[in-house]
């Protein structure tokens, strides 16, 4: 399953589940578009990847941008990037996990930043994306 957002805004200082409204393929029909979660169609080992990109920040100063892979059982991976500069620059953390999911378990991607204003995730090919693949 591979999907990406079509340009979403993320509020400051809160973990925000990434709304993924463009599903490029989902052979098992396991991505729930109403709550933006992948629901494991069967028990097995899965490779999960997320990539989030935020463009030019609204403010200037020292900011944190964090991407997370979360599941019904907790956080699977988290990457934090710091930005200390002017209002320009691209931050794009990658997160990944290989984990066992039980049928019905959910996984999703979340992001966080602390700029003090709403910021936009970059949309389009290669920018913000979420991938889940059953590997065994």
Automatic annotation (TrEMBL):
InterPro entries: Tumour_necrosis_fac-like_dom. SUPFAM superfamilies: TNF-like. It comes from the Archaea. This is C1q domain-containing protein. It comes from Haladaptatus litoreus. The lineage of its organism: Archaea, Methanobacteriati, Methanobacteriota, Stenosarchaea group, Halobacteria.
């Amino acid at each position: 399953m591979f999907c990406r957002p079509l340009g979403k805004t993320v509020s400051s200082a809160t973990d925000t589940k990434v709304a993924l409204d463009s599903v490029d393929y989902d052979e098992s029909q396991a991505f729930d578009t109403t709550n933006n979660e992948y629901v494991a169609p069967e028990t097995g080992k899965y490779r999960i990847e997320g990539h989030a990109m935020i463009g030019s920040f609204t403010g200037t100063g020292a900011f944190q941008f964090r991407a997370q892979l979360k599941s019904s059982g907790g956080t699977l991976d988290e990457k934090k990037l710091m930005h200390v500069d002017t209002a320009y620059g691209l931050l794009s953390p990658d997160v990944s996990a290989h984990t066992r999911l039980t049928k019905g378990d959910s996984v999703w991607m979340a992001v966080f930043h602390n700029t003090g204003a709403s910021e936009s995730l970059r949309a389009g090919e290669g920018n913000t994306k979420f991938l889940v693949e059953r590997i065994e």
